[in-house]
Amino acid sequence: MEVNDYVIVYSTEIDMPTIVDVARVAGVSTATVSHALNNTRYVDPQLRERVLKAAQDLGYHRNAVARGLRTKRTRSLGLIIPDIANPFFPEFARGVQDAATQAGYTVVLCNTDWQKDKEHEFLNLAQQGLLDGIILNPSEIAGQDLSNLIKADIPIVLIGSRIDHPKLDQVSVDNVVGATMAVNHLVELGHRRIAHLAGPHTSSSGSRRREGFVQAMRQRNLDKDLTIVEVPFNQEGGYQGTRSILAKEPRPTALFAANDVIAIGALLALRDAGLQVPNALSVVGFDDIPVAAIVSTPLTTIAQPKYQMGECATNLLLDRLSGREKGPGRRVKLDLELVTRSSTGPPPPA
Q1: E strands along the chain, which residues?
Q2: Do domains 2-70 and 74-173+306-334 have the same CATH topology?
Q3: pLDDT band at 63 (very low <50, low <70, confident <90, very high)
Q4: Residue 167, Cβ neighbours under 10 Å: how many?
Q5: What pLDDT, on the 0 to 100 scale, is given for residue 61?
């Protein structure tokens, strides 16, 4: 058995095609075949198409193990997220996968369930050489938890994190601005008693959206008796948090939820309490997940560019892996948008 950089060629009656065969059929050099298949250098699109057709016609397949032994690269990226059940993440992950696939990389999805030990476990995959780079939406870890990876020059792109390190790239939105947009929308409708179903304080997005809510209410001189209930980023949290808010007097006329999943839990709690949305109480979410537009009362929300965030994060990571970018960490902030639907309206008459 002979091992080259691309395939394992077995000495059998029917030899498997090699890179030399692909080069011969395509009428190019083996180096051109290598660059075309591995995306390691620019190749004229017509030549690339010729190489790909020749490889397909011959039934040639690159051998990832052999290539990895030579390059010390797996061409695999880790996507570490806290909760795959949250509908925000599939669209984000699709942006990651599409950009990675176009560059010849595969994506390994790692779900942490908001647990620090799982975050460490997945980060260790890169430390062990099983991942070339990481896109990380951290939940519990801090900057010092990434120190070994940073020393090993393993590229990391953070998503919406409060971790600030000069060597790490980051993609985010301005959660303070997003919360301000939600509050301003409700105030402009006439609401003065606005409650906040806040995400966990350990979450960067949760704490920043809470901060934005408090600032916006203070700027409007509505911060005398703020109602803030911290809940998990899930539907049950929104349901139970809303039940506790409804017990307060005077009752708020509007709710701003830290994400759409919490907001949907709030809608269910209001339905079970016999309260109509928005006639009795208005609700605003955050994220604009797909189901937000099709729930029984379509949800007003702050839309994040989820697919673009994943695509951007992957491109930043690929820049590091290819050597195109060697400078300090880059900070990319994408825009938010207020999407108004039927879950918000004027407050009920006094």
Answers
A1: 2-3, 8-9, 76-81, 106-111, 133-136, 156-159, 169-173, 194-198, 227-230, 254-257, 282-287, 300-303, 331-334, 337-339
A2: no
A3: low
A4: 14
A5: 67
Residue 9: which pLDDT band, with cuts at 50, 70 and 90?
A: very low
CATH superfamily of 2-70: lambda repressor-like DNA-binding domains (1.10.260.40)
Closest CA to 188 of 210, 156, 216: 216
**pLDDT for 236-257, tens place per residue?**
999 999 999 999 999 999 999 9
- Predicted structure pTM score: 0.79
Average pLDDT of 81-90?
A: 92
Q: How far apart are CA 51 and CA 166, in angstroms?
A: 41
pLDDT above 80 for 64: no
Domain 175-305, CATH homologous superfamily name and number? Response regulator (3.40.50.2300)
Domain definitions of the chain by residue range: 2-70, 74-173+306-334, 175-305
Cα–Cα dist 55/8, whole Å: 15
Quick check: 297 and 343 in contact, CB under 8 A?
A: yes
Residue 252 — φ and ψ, nearest 5°?
Answer: -60, 155
Structure tokens at 308: 């673009």
The pLDDT, as a whole number, for residue 135 is 97
pLDDT at 36 over 70: yes
CATH architecture of 74-173+306-334: 3-Layer(aba) Sandwich (3.40)
3 state DSSP class of 283: strand
From residue 109, give the alpha-carbon distance in Å to each of 46, 135, 136. 34, 10, 11
| Kind plus residue range of the DSSP H or E element containing 293 | none
Residues 6+ apart with CB under 8 A from 235: 261, 262, 264, 265, 268
Beta pairing, strands 300-303 & 337-339? antiparallel
